């Protein structure tokens, strides 16, 4: 899949490193030598992919990728190929001393799968990202809370072009955004309800700009860049989202899991999302709309 969408201010655009179904690669850097990744265990399906620095696009070597029972490191070419236990869910975790830890939503492998490029955010970019999340009228990012980026994936005949509302679902009346329906509602409002009022939602209208807070997202078919970033999320291993497509689109939210990746069918998502506390870790998840 492609990368994230948030960094204006000199860096271009993006937000949090996420895996990509786009296997075209991207970015600069040199392919210096063969893949030095390791496989563990030796049996079971393998997930392969490439780690790319954001925003430079160079290959990231010596990152540790953990896929449940399997782990390995990226080679000089940024590539990895790691075996794990078949049909056993895991949260993909990527760590490196010079990068932010990335936690992908939970999935499992039913066979070998190419994850494609994963854009990986360096520590040097973090201050700019945090500044883009915060504003003068919203809370600061809290160290005991987490940050989650969410991308929208459109399947079938769904061509949703705006009005998707994404919120944290705490099981209470939390509403971190405004349900604007087809985009014609109150884009500036916020109803915190009686639940966790700490989480703040930032919507993006494109990969080159940040939309006003609580603005519904304009989406593109099979988009995997973040539609929203949610910060000050209570950490946990089963964070729930509430997703409302615009009524005019006729699209519905996929709720049946496991759900196969539309471009890598051996990757099957479980629907679980994990968020950890602190600003050195970012989580990424997808929601699927279909028609």
Automatic annotation (TrEMBL):
Region Disordered: start-end pairs: 22-53
Highest taxon of the lineage: Bacteria
Full protein name: Lipoprotein
Taxonomic source organism: Pendulispora brunnea
